[in-house]
What does this fold into?
Amino acid sequence: MAIALIVNHGKRTVDAEPDKPLLWALREDLDLRGTKFGCGAGLCGACTVILDGVAVRSCQTPISEAVGKQIITIEAVTTLPAGKRVVDAWVDLDVPQCGYCQAGQIMSATALLTRTPKPGHDDIVAGMSGNICRCATYLRIQKAIRKAAG
Ligand code: FES
It folds into this structure.
């Protein structure tokens, strides 16, 4: 069935079942492949997108839950004020190693700074606790978030 979504500030339509995970609608139907598949089980955070300002795991979010909400993916994260600062800090501090998890990390960091503009260490640890990095770039991630917070 045709389902209308608002993705990266534009109207898009996907032809899919309402229970299809948003991750696969983004990647397969809309060709937005920056959002990554990691575990598919809600454990790693690689698939994180922002839904009405909140970081969610798109592998665990059916399309039906996203209808009528603003979906922002890594492709448009720099259109968000916090997202632009996060990406700039990520580049400045050369955060990624293999890079696979970083789209999800950036989305979570952007959601964190949007709701908590000046996060303390504990806020950062809690806000990023759902995103796993197998290269263990955590210290650079934390430093970049502090830099983006200004
Ligand atoms: Fe969604 Fe791992 S792929 S949490």
Observations:
- The two ends are 45 Å apart (CA to CA).
